[in-house]
Amino acid sequence: MSTLTYLKNFIRDKNVASITPTSTFGVKKVCDKIDFKKRNVIIEYGPGTGVFSKYLLKKMSKDSKLILIELNKNFVNILHRIRDPRVNIFNDSAENVLNSIESAEELCADYIISGIPFSFLTPNSKNKILHNTYRALGNGGKFLVYQHSNHLKEHLKSHFDVVHIEHEFRNIPPLCIYEAIKR
Ligand SMILES: C[S@@+](CC[C@H](N)C(=O)[O-])C[C@H]1O[C@@H](n2cnc3c(N)ncnc32)[C@H](O)[C@@H]1O
Prior knowledge:
The protein is an alpha/beta fold and about 180 residues long. The chain has helices spanning about 1-10, 25-30, 50-60, 75-80, 95-105, 125-135, 155-160; strands at about 40-45, 65-70, 85-90, 110-115, 135-145, 160-170, 175-180.
Protein backbone atom coordinates (compact mmCIF):
# COMPACT_ATOMS: atom_id res chain seq x y z
CA MET A 1 0.00 0.00 0.00
CA SER A 2 2.84 2.38 0.90
CA THR A 3 4.65 1.92 -2.44
CA LEU A 4 1.46 2.46 -4.46
CA THR A 5 0.65 5.59 -2.43
CA TYR A 6 4.16 6.85 -3.11
CA LEU A 7 3.92 6.22 -6.80
CA LYS A 8 0.61 8.13 -7.07
CA ASN A 9 1.96 11.09 -5.11
CA PHE A 10 5.30 11.01 -6.96
CA ILE A 11 3.43 11.45 -10.26
CA ARG A 12 1.45 14.44 -8.96
CA ASP A 13 4.01 16.15 -6.70
CA LYS A 14 7.67 16.67 -7.71
CA ASN A 15 8.65 17.29 -4.06
CA VAL A 16 7.96 13.63 -3.24
CA ALA A 17 11.03 12.78 -5.36
CA SER A 18 10.94 9.02 -4.79
CA ILE A 19 8.74 6.21 -6.06
CA THR A 20 9.19 4.01 -3.00
CA PRO A 21 9.58 4.60 0.72
CA THR A 22 13.01 4.19 2.36
CA SER A 23 13.94 0.54 3.03
CA THR A 24 14.21 -0.97 6.52
CA PHE A 25 18.02 -1.03 6.00
CA GLY A 26 18.01 2.73 5.40
CA VAL A 27 15.65 3.51 8.29
CA LYS A 28 17.73 1.48 10.76
CA LYS A 29 21.06 2.93 9.64
CA VAL A 30 19.81 6.51 10.10
CA CYS A 31 18.10 5.77 13.43
CA ASP A 32 21.17 3.95 14.81
CA LYS A 33 22.60 7.42 15.41
CA ILE A 34 19.89 8.19 17.98
CA ASP A 35 20.28 7.55 21.71
CA PHE A 36 16.84 6.14 22.54
CA LYS A 37 17.68 5.61 26.21
CA LYS A 38 16.82 9.22 27.11
CA ARG A 39 13.86 11.57 26.56
CA ASN A 40 14.14 13.04 23.07
CA VAL A 41 12.39 15.63 20.99
CA ILE A 42 12.71 14.30 17.44
CA ILE A 43 11.58 16.22 14.37
CA GLU A 44 11.07 14.56 11.01
CA TYR A 45 10.99 16.57 7.77
CA GLY A 46 9.07 14.87 4.95
CA PRO A 47 7.82 11.74 6.74
CA GLY A 48 5.74 10.71 3.70
CA THR A 49 3.63 7.70 4.74
CA GLY A 50 5.61 7.35 7.97
CA VAL A 51 8.22 4.57 7.54
CA PHE A 52 10.65 6.41 9.83
CA SER A 53 7.91 7.73 12.13
CA LYS A 54 6.57 4.25 12.95
CA TYR A 55 10.08 2.89 13.63
CA LEU A 56 10.91 5.89 15.82
CA LEU A 57 7.72 5.51 17.85
CA LYS A 58 8.63 1.88 18.60
CA LYS A 59 12.06 2.92 19.90
CA MET A 60 11.30 6.23 21.65
CA SER A 61 10.64 6.50 25.40
CA LYS A 62 7.09 7.18 26.60
CA ASP A 63 7.91 10.79 27.48
CA SER A 64 9.62 11.62 24.16
CA LYS A 65 7.99 13.69 21.42
CA LEU A 66 7.89 13.27 17.64
CA ILE A 67 7.14 16.34 15.49
CA LEU A 68 6.27 15.53 11.86
CA ILE A 69 6.50 18.30 9.23
CA GLU A 70 5.12 17.25 5.85
CA LEU A 71 4.29 19.46 2.85
CA ASN A 72 2.09 16.98 0.95
CA LYS A 73 -1.54 17.05 2.16
CA ASN A 74 -2.26 13.44 1.05
CA PHE A 75 0.62 12.18 3.17
CA VAL A 76 -0.53 14.32 6.10
CA ASN A 77 -3.95 12.63 5.93
CA ILE A 78 -2.25 9.21 6.06
CA LEU A 79 -0.01 10.30 8.95
CA HIS A 80 -3.10 11.29 10.96
CA ARG A 81 -3.95 7.58 11.16
CA ILE A 82 -1.07 7.24 13.64
CA ARG A 83 -2.75 7.31 17.02
CA ASP A 84 -0.02 8.19 19.50
CA PRO A 85 -0.06 11.08 22.00
CA ARG A 86 3.69 11.65 21.42
CA VAL A 87 3.08 12.75 17.82
CA ASN A 88 2.46 16.31 16.55
CA ILE A 89 1.77 16.67 12.83
CA PHE A 90 2.19 19.88 10.81
CA ASN A 91 1.17 20.32 7.16
CA ASP A 92 3.92 22.83 6.47
CA SER A 93 7.38 23.27 4.99
CA ALA A 94 10.55 22.40 6.90
CA GLU A 95 11.50 26.06 6.41
CA ASN A 96 9.04 26.86 9.21
CA VAL A 97 10.46 24.38 11.73
CA LEU A 98 10.80 27.07 14.42
CA ASN A 99 7.03 27.71 14.33
CA SER A 100 6.34 23.97 14.60
CA ILE A 101 8.56 23.58 17.67
CA GLU A 102 6.80 26.49 19.33
CA SER A 103 3.35 25.05 18.50
CA ALA A 104 4.45 21.70 19.94
CA GLU A 105 5.44 23.57 23.14
CA GLU A 106 9.10 22.56 23.00
CA LEU A 107 12.20 24.76 23.14
CA CYS A 108 14.49 22.78 20.83
CA ALA A 109 15.08 19.37 19.25
CA ASP A 110 17.61 16.65 20.03
CA TYR A 111 17.44 15.15 16.54
CA ILE A 112 16.06 16.32 13.20
CA ILE A 113 15.72 13.66 10.51
CA SER A 114 15.22 14.70 6.90
CA GLY A 115 14.46 12.97 3.63
CA ILE A 116 13.29 16.04 1.74
CA PRO A 117 14.90 16.30 -1.71
CA PHE A 118 17.43 19.08 -1.14
CA SER A 119 18.64 18.95 -4.74
CA PHE A 120 15.16 20.13 -5.87
CA LEU A 121 15.14 23.18 -3.60
CA THR A 122 16.08 26.72 -4.60
CA PRO A 123 19.35 27.95 -3.00
CA ASN A 124 17.28 30.34 -0.89
CA SER A 125 14.99 27.61 0.43
CA LYS A 126 17.93 25.23 1.07
CA ASN A 127 19.76 27.89 3.09
CA LYS A 128 16.65 28.81 5.04
CA ILE A 129 16.04 25.17 6.00
CA LEU A 130 19.67 24.60 7.03
CA HIS A 131 19.84 27.87 8.98
CA ASN A 132 16.56 27.24 10.83
CA THR A 133 17.46 23.59 11.45
CA TYR A 134 20.66 24.66 13.20
CA ARG A 135 18.65 27.13 15.32
CA ALA A 136 16.03 24.46 16.12
CA LEU A 137 18.59 22.00 17.54
CA GLY A 138 19.86 22.13 21.12
CA ASN A 139 23.60 21.94 21.84
CA GLY A 140 24.85 18.48 20.86
CA GLY A 141 21.79 18.06 18.63
CA LYS A 142 22.08 16.13 15.37
CA PHE A 143 20.67 16.72 11.91
CA LEU A 144 20.39 13.31 10.19
CA VAL A 145 19.85 13.59 6.45
CA TYR A 146 19.38 10.80 3.89
CA GLN A 147 19.71 11.61 0.19
CA HIS A 148 20.34 9.72 -3.03
CA SER A 149 23.54 11.65 -3.79
CA ASN A 150 26.57 13.27 -2.24
CA HIS A 151 25.64 16.85 -3.07
CA LEU A 152 24.90 18.19 0.43
CA LYS A 153 28.28 17.89 2.16
CA GLU A 154 29.58 21.42 1.56
CA HIS A 155 26.22 23.04 2.39
CA LEU A 156 26.06 21.14 5.67
CA LYS A 157 29.67 22.06 6.48
CA SER A 158 28.88 25.74 6.06
CA HIS A 159 26.10 25.54 8.69
CA PHE A 160 27.17 22.79 11.14
CA ASP A 161 30.23 22.22 13.34
CA VAL A 162 30.89 18.56 12.45
CA VAL A 163 29.66 16.52 9.46
CA HIS A 164 30.05 12.73 8.99
CA ILE A 165 28.96 10.78 5.90
CA GLU A 166 28.03 7.11 5.48
CA HIS A 167 26.29 5.05 2.80
CA GLU A 168 23.63 2.36 2.78
CA PHE A 169 24.05 0.34 -0.41
CA ARG A 170 21.26 -2.14 0.39
CA ASN A 171 18.71 0.65 -0.17
CA ILE A 172 17.60 0.98 -3.81
CA PRO A 173 18.81 3.48 -4.92
CA PRO A 174 21.72 3.61 -2.40
CA LEU A 175 21.49 6.24 0.31
CA CYS A 176 24.01 8.84 1.36
CA ILE A 177 23.50 9.43 5.09
CA TYR A 178 24.81 12.64 6.68
CA GLU A 179 25.19 13.24 10.40
CA ALA A 180 25.59 16.99 11.03
CA ILE A 181 26.24 17.98 14.65
CA LYS A 182 25.64 21.24 16.51
CA ARG A 183 28.33 21.47 19.20
C1 LIG B 1 11.88 11.15 -0.68
S1 LIG B 1 10.33 11.40 0.17
C2 LIG B 1 10.76 10.63 1.73
C3 LIG B 1 9.55 10.08 2.42
C4 LIG B 1 9.81 9.17 3.64
N1 LIG B 1 10.44 9.91 4.71
C5 LIG B 1 10.65 7.96 3.31
O1 LIG B 1 11.76 7.86 3.83
O2 LIG B 1 10.19 7.11 2.56
C6 LIG B 1 10.40 13.15 0.50
C7 LIG B 1 9.26 13.68 1.37
O3 LIG B 1 9.53 15.05 1.69
C8 LIG B 1 8.34 15.83 1.56
N2 LIG B 1 8.77 17.22 1.37
C9 LIG B 1 9.37 17.77 0.26
N3 LIG B 1 9.71 19.05 0.49
C10 LIG B 1 9.35 19.32 1.79
C11 LIG B 1 9.47 20.48 2.62
N4 LIG B 1 10.01 21.61 2.17
N5 LIG B 1 8.99 20.41 3.89
C12 LIG B 1 8.42 19.26 4.36
N6 LIG B 1 8.28 18.14 3.62
C13 LIG B 1 8.74 18.17 2.34
C14 LIG B 1 7.63 15.17 0.38
O4 LIG B 1 6.27 15.51 0.34
C15 LIG B 1 7.89 13.68 0.71
O5 LIG B 1 6.96 13.18 1.60
